[in-house]
Design a protein that fits this description.
Elements lengths: L2 H28 L7 H20 L10 H26 L5 H12 L15 H16 L1 H8 L7 H8 L12 H24 L6 H12 L17 H14 L3 H8 L3 H5 L2 H23 L6 H16 L14 H13 L12 H19 L8 E2 L2 E2 L2 H28 L6 H12 L20 H16 L2 H5 L11
Helix pairs in contact: 1-2, 1-3, 1-5, 2-3, 3-4, 3-7, 4-5, 4-19, 5-9, 6-8, 8-9, 8-10, 8-11, 9-10, 10-14, 13-14, 13-15, 14-15, 17-18, 17-19, 18-19
Length: 490
């Protein structure tokens, strides 16, 4: 473990987080929130971040080498530290009295989960709401990706950081230098966010503050809103369509947008993962629409399609916005939405879940095993985008799925054991699934119109860990408990 380099990178992240926090700090004066102590809350937090960060970055480490497992550990530590410091404004201001609740809310923000412990979000000061949604935007692409993008020089260690933070079964560069890859990704991210802000503010029911809040939530596929009834507050078909489209856009692999920018449109559109994702979305939307019509939930096809497409998009992209209380929909519609929770969006996107590419590999691996059972002497190759998938990658995906299901089962057992008299099994199951897949709302008592406030401290800690495990895809966080990674670098 290269401790000096670790401290240097964590110091950079602390300074960058302080810089991001300057925006809501200035807003506290613009909105005159002096009675809420928000100027003090942000001012103290920024001061602490700079006090911790600046000493760590004054001297650049001479040894910049790092092993792959060291990169994973740095990423895990970065996200934990970022969450702890990011929770301070909520605690210091008194908007959220309990620190575990503050940590839950902040981790939910950075991991783009969108699960909340605030029953009435509309009473929270605007600067804190802005910071709360800004954590979505920062966490969506990853603060380490941002740090790498602004680094003045390339560092051979950054490949391990990107591999650990960028979601998906494998990481690939889109240009030769990783620093430029990070800049391209963030450039696309910023441009798409700005476009959504402009499109949302066109609607007369959406002011500039609302548009930023919901654009941040969509871009990071997080789902925090400044209204109790989420996007349903606007009751606008136009807003529903804009957010639905952008939720799907942000759940696509960002490499595809780069290919489109450089004129390789056909290559981008031939993506097998994109075809699967859109097919699953369309199929789920139509299935839910028919279910809602048959059960007379909505009277017209257009109305049923409007709400089903929005909810299919928000759940598959793991954003978590709501225009309807889908927890009251028929069981079939709820089951389809739960399946979408687990599938998630594409690799290399801001969405959570297993990722469509992993689902494709798992599905094709199952077909291959069935064929081999029927014809043992035959050899079958799994292909993705017409390219053979290595056995190493296939085994890696299978192993990840096993660990993922084990964590899901263990979390359900822990939460159910503690909360057996509080909520029903559906609530516990959907709460764990929602947090582990970084979705946000679940079913039952944690539906889209409710919060996680009534869960115990222990359950909130379990769900907080699940959110981090889901966003970092298990390995970085688990490596923190592996003694060998803490051995000093030789």
């Amino acid at each position: 473990m290269n401790y000096r380099l670790t401290a240097y990178i964590l110091g950079q992240i602390a300074v960058v987080t302080a810089a991001f926090m300057l925006v809501p700090f200035v807003m506290t004066f613009g909105y005159g929130e002096y009675e809420y102590n928000t100027p003090l809350a942000f001012g103290v937090t920024i001061g602490v971040l700079l006090l911790v960060g600046i000493p760590c970055i004054i001297l650049k480490p001479k040894d910049s080498s790092i092993r792959a497992r060291g990169g994973f550990v740095i990423v895990a530590l970065a996200w934990i530290c970022m969450s702890v410091f990011g929770a301070l404004p909520f605690r210091i201001s008194g908007a959220i009295p309990d620190f575990i609740d503050c940590l839950f809310e902040t981790v939910s923000g950075f991991t783009t989960t969108g699960a909340s412990i605030i029953p009435n979000v509309e009473i929270i000061p605007k600067s804190l709401l802005f910071w709360r949604s800004m954590t979505h935007w920062i966490g969506g692409m990853g603060v380490l990706v941002f740090v790498i993008a602004v680094l003045p020089k390339s560092n051979p260690a950054i490949v391990h950081l990107l591999k650990a933070e960028v979601p998906g079964p494998q990481f690939g560069k889109i240009v030769s230098k990783l620093r430029f890859t990070a800049r391209i990704l963030y450039g696309i991210y910023i441009a798409l966010t700005a476009l959504e802000v402009v499109l949302l503010v066109i609607d007369k029911n959406v002011n500039l503050f609302d548009s930023f809040i919901h654009a941040f939530g969509t871009a990071g596929t997080g789902g925090f809103s400044n209204y109790v009834d989420s996007v349903g507050h606007f009751d606008s078909v136009y807003v529903d369509i804009v957010i639905t489209v952008f939720m799907m856009i942000f759940s696509m692999n960002f490499n595809l947008f780069y290919f489109i920018l450089i004129g390789h449109v056909r290559e981008a559109l031939r993506s097998e993962e994109l075809h699967w994702m859109l097919s699953i979305f369309v199929g789920a939307t139509l299935a839910i629409t028919v279910c809602l019509l048959v059960n007379n939930v909505y009277e017209t096809f257009g109305e049923a399609l409007r709400y089903s497409s929005f909810q299919a998009s928000t759940i598959m992209s793991t954003t978590g916005y709501a225009t309807a209380d889908f927890a009251t929909w028929p069981a079939f519609a709820q089951f389809v939405l739960v399946l979408l929770m687990f599938i998630g969006g594409s690799a290399g996107s801001t969405a959570g879940g297993l990722k469509v590419s992993r689902v494709i590999i798992l599905f094709k691996n199952g077909i291959r095993n069935f064929k081999k059972a029927c014809s043992p002497r035959s050899y079958y190759t799994i292909r993705l985008d017409c390219k053979p998938v290595s056995d190493k990658l296939s085994h890696s995906v299978s192993s990840y799925f096993i660990v993922y299901i084990t964590i899901f089962a263990a979390s359900c057992l822990l939460v159910s054991a503690v909360e057996h008299a509080t909520f029903d099994f559906t609530t516990h199951l959907s709460a764990v699934a929602s947090c582990l897949n970084n979705v946000g709302p679940g079913l039952g008592a944690v539906g889209p119109l409710y919060s996680y406030a009534d869960y115990s401290i222990f359950s909130k800690i379990v769900l907080t860990v699940d959110m981090l495990l889901g966003r970092l895809e298990v390995v970085p966080l688990l490596l923190l408990f592996y003694p060998k990674v803490w051995a000093p670098a030789k």
